[in-house]
Design a protein that fits this description.
six-stranded mixed sheet; five-stranded antiparallel sheet; Peptidoglycan synthesis regulatory factor (PBP3), Domain 2; Beta-lactamase; globular; alpha+beta; single chain
Length: about 400
């Protein structure tokens, strides 16, 4: 239906409702028209969502909170907890992991690991990211959690921390199990957290590789990535496919173009072709209609502020985190930046202490915010420090 016809219908509806005494605004009709335009994307999969990876803003949704079996997309959480443990120094990529009998018997897609053999964390991570190996996922879980059950608890605790309100994990790999479920939106949330770790793309983008397995390294496995968009969609660098007869075909895909990284999630597609086409369609929609704007980088200097009763008279204020915002194309000129800081501060001040905020507005609506913090610590001055300040003042007077 063309926009002209929609507007005519909208006017007729308003006239009809005014005759019947029902109040409705033209703005409400326009909102319905906008929804209709989004529906023209014609997503046939059971559930789908498109978000901006930086802000988490939802750009498209279809049954985003419907609880569905996530199949191997579950392994996004397994990879997240693994890469977090590496980045935090709890484990290393070169750590040797002993394969348990339980891990080796997971079934489904696997590396065919043998009980008692040893594989590095990195080898297992490659097995999960590229081959979607169930035995590798279980082995990582056992190593990170101490045992498999503890790791599943870690997965669910992390899900709660990320605001994944409609997810419950019962295993680390997504094999069918009653009570194991997630949603398109929750998958997007854990995908958003995963892509905060740049190192993970090193594994998610491997197209083909080989891996020796077995106690004697005598079995060579050729691994091929199941995410076919890696070869066909510009800027795509992850994340994970999934399939079971119950879950059907699933995909969490991410791509970056310019200042924007988007995450597209498809659950319950009827076939593999559909999941790739619909994920790409959502990404195209996002990149066509939105643009990213980098406001400030993490620890970028904002300004200096005065400090009273401290060992230093001034303090540098920096941004706690990077701030990127997402805008509909053409809205960039409507952006306003407001820095909220006091004229002066009183010592003591600790490094990293919040001193103010930088807020971004689009036509008086807040669309982004970052805390401003102290770059360094300043101790409260003592008698000796105050004496030195007075002496410095008299020996180095300010010239007018």
């Amino acid at each position: 239906m063309g926009k002209r016809k929609i507007k005519i219908i909208s006017i007729l509806i308003i006239m009809l409702l005014s005759i019947t005494g029902v109040s409705v605004s033209a703005q409400e009709i326009v909102k319905k028209e906008d929804i209709q335009e989004k529906e023209d994307l014609a997503i046939e999969s059971k559930s789908a969502v498109l978000i901006d990876a930086s802000t988490g803003k939802i750009l498209f949704k279809k049954n985003k909170d419907e609880k569905l079996p996530p199949a191997s997309i579950t392994k996004i959480m397994t990879m997240l907890l693994t890469i977090e443990a590496v980045d935090e120094g709890k484990i290393t990529l070169k750590d040797q992991v002993s394969i348990s009998e339980q891990a080796s018997e997971m079934g489904g897609t696997q590396l065919f690991l043998e009980p008692g053999e040893k594989r590095t964390v990195e080898e297992l991570l490659i097995g999960v990211a590229v081959e979607s190996a169930n035995d590798a996922a279980a082995a990582l879980g056992e190593y990170i959690g101490g045992n498999y059950e503890s790791f599943i608890k870690m997965m669910n605790d992390k899900a709660k921390q990320l605001g994944m309100k409609n997810t419950y994990f019962k295993n680390a790999n997504g094999l069918p199990e009653e009570g194991h479920y997630s949603t398109a939106y929750d998958v997007a949330l854990m995908s958003k957290e995963l892509v905060k770790h740049p190192k993970i793309h090193q594994y998610l983008t491997i197209w083909m590789t080989t891996l020796n397995v077995g106690k004697n390294d005598d079995k060579m496995r050729t691994l091929a990535n199941t995410n076919k968009l890696l070869k066909s969609y510009e800027g795509l660098d992850g994340i994970k496919t999934g399939y079971t007869s119950e879950a059907k075909h699933c995909l969490s895909a991410t791509a970056k173009k310019g200042n924007i990284r988007l995450i597209s999630v498809i659950l319950g597609a009827e076939n593999s072709k559909m999941r790739f086409e619909e994920a790409a369609k959502l990404l195209d929609y996002g990149f066509t209609n939105y643009e990213g704007l980098n406001i400030i980088e993490k620890e970028e200097e904002i300004q200096k502020v005065s400090v009273e009763k401290g060992t230093m008279n001034t303090l540098t204020v920096v941004a706690k985190d990077s701030l990127n915002i997402l805008l509909k194309k053409g809205e960039k000129n409507n952006i306003e930046k407001k820095i909220i800081l006091q004229p002066n501060y009183t010592a003591p001040i600790k490094r990293g202490e919040k001193l103010g905020e930088l807020i971004i507005y689009n036509e008086d609506k807040e669309i982004g915010k970052v805390n401003l913090i102290a770059k360094d610590s300043i101790e409260k001055s003592g008698v000796f420090t105050n004496y030195k300040k007075i002496l410095n003042y008299w020996t180095n007077p300010i010239k007018e």
